[in-house]
Design a protein that fits this description.
mainly beta; SH3 type barrels; endopeptidase fold (from Nostoc punctiforme); 3 domains; six-stranded antiparallel barrel; three-stranded antiparallel beta sheet; 4 helices
């Protein structure tokens, strides 16, 4: 998804298999569509060749359905009688043990969980670690390229919680935690680097460790001062706030 109808425009987010959206505008040359993603209300342009139309009836049905979300780093489905590789965090139209009617033949064999089922901190940590060493990519949401807020959103989405796409949205979700001494694994930790506002976020793994996307998804030391890079032993970000989203 891009800010403008051009391959050269900035990437703002990314669609994974099963994401659904509404089309709000078509470019003059009809090669680009401005879309509004249902899950997080994110907007951007996609190439029209990447678009697949569904009926309004099916779109509304998807909004209500508790489908499965994949938990394997990669897995494959049989879609329209052809194998297709999908990535962790993809939505597949299976609910419980039922396979819902689709226009194309569909089959999936892999690990998944119900999208709406909320899991605990240990599960969240195990999902976060699956993204370890994924390269940083602005607007990315996959293990082959992801940004800081994308990592937080995807890990929470798989765990069963809905977060906004941007760091600003995430900084308003959940409830505030007073200090690092009161933080628990899974809390969102916000930082600043060379500015006076939040511009980075990560997930607390344990009392003094954070996982975040900075160059790549990595684990670094954390204290009240901020992030201490494990490799350089230099502070890269100053701590500005903590939010708790996971429920007991």
């Amino acid at each position: 998804m891009r800010t403008e109808p051009s391959d050269k425009a900035e990437q703002v987010s990314q669609l994974l298999f099963g994401d659904h959206y509404e089309v709000h505008e078509v470019s003059k040359d009809k090669n680009w569509l401005r879309i509004h993603v249902y899950y997080d209300q994110c907007e951007g342009w996609i190439n029209a060749h990447q678009h697949h139309t569904v009926t309004r009836e099916y779109y509304d049905y998807i909004n209500r359905a508790d489908f499965k979300i994949t938990t394997d780093l990669t897995s494959s489905i049989l879609y329209n009688k052809s194998p297709l590789l999908i990535l962790i965090g993809s939505i597949i139209p299976i609910s419980g043990s039922e396979l819902f009617k689709m226009e194309e033949q569909f089959a999936f064999n892999g690990d998944s969980k119900s999208l709406g089922v909320k899991r605990e901190a240990e599960f969240l940590k195990s999902i976060a670690l699956k993204y370890l060493n994924a390269p940083y990519q602005w607007g990315g949401k996959s293990p082959f390229g992801i940004d800081a807020s994308g990592l937080v959103q995807m890990v929470y989405k798989i765990t069963g919680y809905r977060l906004g796409r941007t760091l600003e949205e995430q900084s308003r979700q959940g409830k505030a935690v007073n200090n690092l001494a009161e933080a628990v694994p899974g809390d969102l930790i916000f930082f600043t680097a060379h500015t006076n506002r939040n511009n980075h976020v990560g997930l607390l793994l344990e009392k003094d460790k954070i996982i975040h996307a900075f160059g790549k998804v990595r684990i670094d030391y954390l204290n009240e001062e901020g992030i201490l890079n494990l490799d350089t032993k230099i502070y890269t970000h100053a701590l500005t706030g903590i939010r708790r989203v996971l429920t007991e």
